[in-house]
Amino acid sequence: MPIHYYEKSKSFKLDAKDTSYIMAVVDEEKFLGHVYFGERIPDEDVNYLMRLDEPPYVPSKNNRDRMSFLDSFPTEYPTSGLGDFREPCLKVLTKLGATACGIFYKSHKIYKGKPKLNGLPATFGNEDDCTTLEITCVDNHLNLEVILIYTVFEDLDVITRSVKVKNCSDEDIILTRVLSACVDFDRIDMDMVTLHGSWAREFHVKRRKVELGKQAVSSSRGETSHQANPFLALMDRNATEDFGEVYGFNLVYSGNFLAQVEGCQFDTTRVVMGINPFDFGWKLEPQEEFVAPEVVMVYSNEGIGKMSRTFHDLYRNHLIRGEYKNKRRPVLINSWEAAYFDFDTDKLLRLAREASKLGIEMLVMDDGWFGKRNSDNCSLGDWVVNEEKLKGGLKYLVDEVNKLGMKFGIWFEPEMVSPDSDLYRAHPDWCIHIDGREGTLCRNQYVLDLSRKEVRDYVYESVSNILRSANIKYVKWDMNRQLSDVGNCVLPPDRQREIWHRYVLGVYELMDRLTTEFPHILLENCSGGGGRFDPGMLYFSPQIWLSDDTDAIERLKIQHGASYVYPVSTMGAHISDCPNHIIGRITPFETRGLVALSGTFGYELDVTKISQEDKDMIPKQIEMYNKYNNLIYNGDLYRIGNPFENIEFECVEYVSKDKNEALVVYIQILNRSNYHSRRIPLKGLQKDAFYRNEETNEVFSGSALMNGGILIKGLQGDFRGKLFHFVHV
Ligand code: GLA
Questions:
Q1: Which of 150, 490, 571, 653 is least crowded, fewest Cβ atoms below 10 Å from its Cβ?
Q2: In a mutational test of the pocket of ligand 1, which residue from 198, 201, 548 has the highest number of ligand atoms less than 8 Å from its CB?
Q3: Are 331 and 359 spatial neighbours (Cβ–Cβ below 8 Å)?
Q4: Is any ligand 1 atom within 6 A of the Cβ of residue 336?
Q5: In terms of DSSP H, where are the helices of 539-608?
Q6: Which one is catalytic: 382, 548, 614, 636?
Q7: Is the pLDDT assigned to residue 608 strictly greater than 90?
Q8: Which amino acids does the record list as binding substrate (predicted)?
């Protein structure tokens, strides 16, 4: 069993592939303490690590310094107000106005498999993949039960966690914070890595030293956000891509989050992660339960690269679902950068005709097909086809596209309403708002209150009616603003703070309905690009539009940062026009193709207007995508370059699981004058095996390729790229 309870030491030992995670119940009061997290160890009892024989002793030995004990003990799930002054995970508000709580071990159970989390996305696994431990703790004063849930994935270095809080009293209680996980590290000499950005500039990697005090990334925007991803990693100060201990944490959630590191007085470091307590509240009536979202913890003893590959394996096999999970996605052409709002049936068919000749397999009609939508100022919520633009209706257009042998996809922004819409005129109170206060507009739209069932039902019916009306094979689900003025006119005052989380649960419920009724539709999430690129969304859609910045060079950074956590198969990536619409940069068409290869691969430009030379390249690019897609989607990713540190080149390598094949994607960002060829050592191959360079037929050992490397030469100019394909001989 990968999870053991040792009665003698009262300790729990969780063993993932190369990882051990240990907790113990100590003292008569039954404190649950964190003992160890790191490389796998065989020992049953390492409780000495908690230093319980040093002052401040456990309370039963010396209650005089109870507070010192609470404030230094590595608590497994810290609570507020009783003497642990570091960041707590749980805080309440009682009828009397008290906020303190304290939990103690009561019981536990261990079982095969993994439970679902009610209403929330989560990783999954069967009885052969994983084992679960539930530890029930209680606050006897409040009559509150806290169930800590841990699942170990046996073949991966992954432990997942979540928390259930149950009100066993006969009075209401308000939860004002319920984080999902805490780990107290017995060291502070670590670096922290987080992913930051803005619209069109997501996933920029930031590395800094852990310092005394608090360092956090968070969102209070109602979605995970462009600005920060719900991820953090702690690592040895000298950890690199390939060496050193790295601990990755990722929250499976799509709303407000907190990911925080706190350097504490005795040079320990507390990590906490969960729903952002900022503006959070949840009323629990007697017998009600609150479930906090899942945190995925990954341990790597081989640097950041191995952490990423573990996240990728977990998400590809145990998070993403549906038909397209491990499958090649159709090569699409999206109308957004090709036409924006300016299209009609004829124009779309012209685009489709040309695209189909080039081998493109699906036309996606983006924003602008409904209501009176000719700009982003109106009509969100009115999911009725604009027949002035789509003459003959949607079915006619889809049928004509199908006749060309192409599939058809469509864009929605289901969570929004424009003030200038029939929906808003009929139901002005259906958006998130504070009565009497004028709401803050963003892109001239408000957010629909998806915490309300009648609003969800309307949205679902209007979206699904369209989907039922024609042969639609793909949906892009967009979400183009963040939440403000959070309130509604249905919940009582003491439940208003629940709206943030109820909104996210509402989105999940809608996506669940959609993917259940339309299991064959390929769903791509989007939030103005990567504003909601998180594991919660990946549970419903195997791919997410990574960024509105489609410039190949900007994308190198964005894709590099995103690959810290998310598999390449999840990253929406298109070849677009030049000068690039966001940044104005001009890059070769070929390079745009090489960069989009590390993603879902599609087009987003008017193929009727590009040069013949570029057009001729499209069938070859699609051939390249077909050839390497399986390797890229299902192989192991090794990052070789780092565009945040070196702006001369980016290089990634994909190695098949059996190590018989490798693809190196090399992009020269800025050329360097008077320089010899660049030597690039490869990674992840079999040392003793021999590999043939498919282009030159030269054969080298894995050892030579990994220690000596390959030489990159002959790339003249900036923004040039090249592929190297090696096959085992
Ligand atoms: C967002 C998306 C774009 C496009 C537009 C349409 O910005 O990220 O890809 O769909 O909305 O309005």
A1: 490
A2: 548
A3: yes
A4: yes
A5: 552-562, 589-596
A6: 548
A7: yes
A8: 199, 366-367, 443, 476-480, 526, 548
Confidence of residue 209 (pLDDT cuts 50, 70, 90): very high
pLDDT at 1: 85
Q: How far is the CA of 528 from the centre of ligand 1 (A)?
A: 5
Q: Is the CB of 199 under 6 A from ligand 1?
A: no
DSSP type of residue 483: -
404 secondary structure, DSSP code: T
> Residue 526 annotated as binding?
yes
- pLDDT single digits (tens) 214-253: 999 999 999 999 999 999 999 999 999 999 999 999 999 9
For residue 464, what pLDDT is reported?
Answer: 98
User: What is the tally of helices (H) and strands (E) in the chain?
Assistant: 13, 38
C-alpha of residue 391 to centroid of ligand 1, in Å: 23
What architecture does CATH give domain 332-632?
A: Alpha-Beta Barrel (3.20)
The predicted-structure confidence for 668-703, as pLDDT tens digits, reads as follows 999 999 999 999 999 999 999 999 999 999 999 999
Ligand 1 touching residue 335 (CB < 6 A): no
Q: Is the CB of 602 under 6 A from ligand 1?
A: no
Cα distances (Å, whole numbers) of residue 655 to 42, 250, 496, 606: 32, 25, 50, 34
Locate the ligand 1 atom nearest the alpha carbon of residue 376 and give its number.
12
Q: Name the packing angle between helices 393-403 and 345-358 (round to 10°).
A: 20
Tell me, using a 6 A CB cutoff, whether residue 528 lines ligand 1.
yes
Residue closest via CA to ligand 1's atom 12 equals: 367
pLDDT tens by residue, 548-584: 999 999 999 999 999 999 999 999 999 999 999 999 9
CATH number for the 77-318 domain, one of 3.40.50.2300, 2.70.98.60, 2.60.40.10, 3.90.1300.10?
2.70.98.60
Closest Cα to atom 6 of ligand 1: 367
Per the annotation, does 476 bind a ligand?
yes
- The CA distance from 689 to 613, in Å, is 40
Whether the CA torsion 417, 423, 425, 429 is positive or negative: it is: negative
CATH code that applies to domain 649-728: 2.60.40.1180
Q: What is the 3-state secondary structure (H, E, C) of 107-155?
A: EEEEEECCCCECCECCCCCCCCCEEEEEEEEEECCCCEEEEEEEEEECC
* Of 625, 566, 636, 635, residue with least CA distance to 596: 625
Question: Residue 533 has what pLDDT?
Answer: 98
Out of 478, 541, 582, mutate this one to test ligand 1's pocket (max ligand atoms within 8 Å of CB): namely: 478
All structural domains of the chain with their residue ranges = 77-318, 332-632, 649-728
Active site residue 548: yes
Does any ligand 1 atom lie closer than 6 A to the CB of residue 548? Answer: yes
478 in a labelled binding site: yes
Q: Map tokens 């409780």 to a residue.
A: 47
Amino acid 326: pLDDT: 86
Instruction: Tell me how far apart the alpha carbons of residues 361 and 622 are, in angstroms, rounded to a whole number.
Output: 10
pLDDT band, very low/low/confident/very high, at 67 (cuts 50, 70, 90):
very high
303 within ligand 1 shell (Cβ under 6 A) = no
Rounded mean pLDDT of the chain? 98
pLDDT tens for 268-312 read 999 999 999 999 999 999 999 999 999 999 999 999 999 999 999
Q: Which two tokens stand for residue 285?
A: 């009536």
Nearest-CA residue for ligand 1 atom 3 is 528
Q: What is the mean pLDDT of residues 332-347?
A: 98
For residues 230 and 253, the answer to whether their CB atoms sit within 8 Å is yes
> Is 411 close to ligand 1, i.e. is its CB under 6 Å away?
yes
Position 515 pLDDT exceeds 90: yes
Distance CA 58, CA 75 (A): 13
Spot the catalytic one: 84, 129, 420, 478: 478
Q: Are strands 269-275 and 678-680 parallel, antiparallel or unpaired?
A: unpaired
Hunting for tokens 């993917």 — which residue is that?
Answer: 515
User: For residues 689 and 680, what is the distance between their CA atoms, to the nearest angstrom?
Assistant: 19
